[in-house]
Structures are given as structure tokens and as C-alpha cells.
Predict the structure.
Amino acid sequence: MQISGILICIGMVICLPRMGSSAHEAGVNSDTTIISSIKNEKLQWLTLAEAEAKNASQKKAIIIDLYTDWCGWCKVMDKNTYTNKDVIQYIENNFYPVKINAETREPLSWRGKQYQYNTNYKVHDYAILLTGGQLSYPSTVILPADGSTPQVIPGYLKTDDMELILKYFGEGHYGKTPFEAYRKEFTGTWK
């Protein structure tokens, strides 16, 4: 009983919602630039509209960090993974990075279609679309450059996990090499 009580307390601390500011309620992280502790490098997050516009002129996969304000592991991933210099450099060279609050109440537009906050599910319809209704936070969503089905990787990704995912998509293995075969042959170098 004592262990389950401790786990419940820890879970509540991790999952307690932060008191939202208007920027958070609008689905925009109040500071969409994550500053790296190494060499002060920054990952420049785009809005979904900006990524779509850039993708129209130069095709690249889009990586979406799907998060919520109350998600403790989302904050850990922001602090530990998205501040890694190798992650930042690789994403900026090979992807259009987008950060979306799954609970934003602001409308989002993608490929000419408008998506709204869904009051029945208390989550944005675009988050439901991206994840096929299998909501989990954080989720890393890759929108392949060829416009094929979004690929969702649920859960916290450490730097070495992120390297595997980014290089699988960024080096053109997606759709050509089965992921498990790629994983078996992959040797990571990021720390």
C-alpha cells in the first residue's frame, strides 16, 4: 500500500496541469525556442502553417513534437533531448520542426482543411488525426515528405532513441527498409 501511495503522489506531481497562460492556451509554447546547454544552440520551432509553406517550396519531412502543458515527460524531453546539439543540427538540416499543444483551442489548418478543438474529447482534432486516436504524450510524429501517412512514435525519446528515428526518416530508409531491419544494423553516435 505504501508503494502504491508513493507512486500515486509521484504521478500527481508529474501530471498536475500548470496554470495556463494565454500563450499556452493558444497552443503556443511561450518560448518556442529551446536553448541548448551546450554551445547555446537553439532549435527553431515553426508553426504548422510555416512548415507547410516551407514544404511547398522545398520538400522535407516534418517532425512534430505533440505535447500538453501538464505532461511531465514532455518537459523532460524538451530539456534533455531537444537541447542536444546533434539532435538540433540534424533536425534543422533534414526536417521542418513543429511543436503542437494537443489541447490547443486555436484552429489549425493543414492542406487546406481546418481542424478545431474537440470539446467531447478535450483535445484538438488535429492531434486525433495525427495519432489515429491513439493519444499519448509526448508523441513524436513524422510527416514524410512524400505526403504518406503520419508515423507516430509515442513516449519519451532519449537522444540515442531520437537519433535512430531521425536518421531512419532523414536518410531515406523509411518506405524502403523495414524499421526492425534498420534498427538491427544501426549504430548510433550521439550522446
